[in-house]
Design a protein that fits this description.
Pfam families: LOR. This is Protein LURP-one-related 12-like. It comes from Durio zibethinus. Belongs to the LOR family. InterPro entries: LOR, LOR_sf, Tubby-like_C. The C terminus is likely disordered. The chain has a single domain, classed as Porin (Beta Barrel). It has a 12-stranded antiparallel barrel. The radius of gyration is 16 Å and the shape is globular. It contains 1 helix and 12 strands; from the N terminus they run ββββββββββββα. Strand 10 and strand 11 form a beta hairpin. The protein has about 210 residues and is mainly β.
Length: about 210
């Protein structure tokens, strides 16, 4: 098994890769996404499921041709906003390949990610997705991916939060990273509705 592979080895790169993520609706939290590489080629897309996809609690990540790579689904009932990831288009009885939940450690702002098919492989997401400023760390506390604001190269102006960068370190699965972004967006949207505040703030009372 290739190191760093969780979803699809086609999205593991030998060099650092910077993807531009564009929310396709500015009117609803967690609507759709398109993801492009530095050459402007479409890499991933996510279509929305109606005006309030939170009701569905399930989001599908597709490649540029519409092939289902990954389904993320909210686990119900759930403590700490637990979500699970499934290879391809999820079917009944299918086992998840990873789970992501809010860290239950008091005073720590972040999310914990556990990969099931590789015991001991886990990740920590720290920062604020609402501010588009997050880092994904592996178990060795090494940064493997970052979410950050995108700056227009010609004007040096920071773009709006509907456009941001997903930077991947060499060897880290880009499809897995984008799956984590989808979950963060869903949780951030829930926070926006529940707390009227678009911040990824953990609570100890979930």
């Amino acid at each position: 098994m290739k190191s760093g592979l969780v979803v699809d080895g086609d999205y593991i790169y030998d060099e650092e890769k910077h993807l531009t993520v564009l929310k396709t609706s500015l009117f609803f939290a967690n609507d759709g996404f398109t993801v492009y590489d530095c050459k402007g080629q479409l890499v991933f897309r996510v279509d929305s499921y109606g005006p309030d996809p939170r009701d569905k609690g399930e989001v599908v990540l597709m490649d540029a041709h519409g092939r289902c790579l990954l389904t993320v689904r909210k686990k119900r009932p759930s403590l700490h906003h637990r979500w699970e990831g499934f290879l391809g288009e999820r079917s009944e009885g299918q086992k998840p390949i990873f789970s992501i939940k809010r860290s239950s450690i008091i005073g720590r702002c972040g999310m914990m990610v556990e990969v099931f098919n590789n015991p001991g492989e886990e990740y920590q997401i720290e920062g604020s997705f609402g501010q588009r400023s997050c880092t994904i760390f592996n178990a060795a506390k090494e940064s493997v991916a970052e979410i950050k604001r995108k700056v227009d190269a010609s004007t040096n102006v920071v773009l709006g939060k509907d456009v941001f960068l997903l930077s991947l370190k060499p060897g880290f699965d880009g499809a897995f990273a984008m799956g984590l972004v989808l979950v963060l967006d869903q949780i951030n949207g829930d926070d926006y509705v529940e707390n009227d505040e678009a911040e990824m703030i953990p609570t100890t009372e979930d």
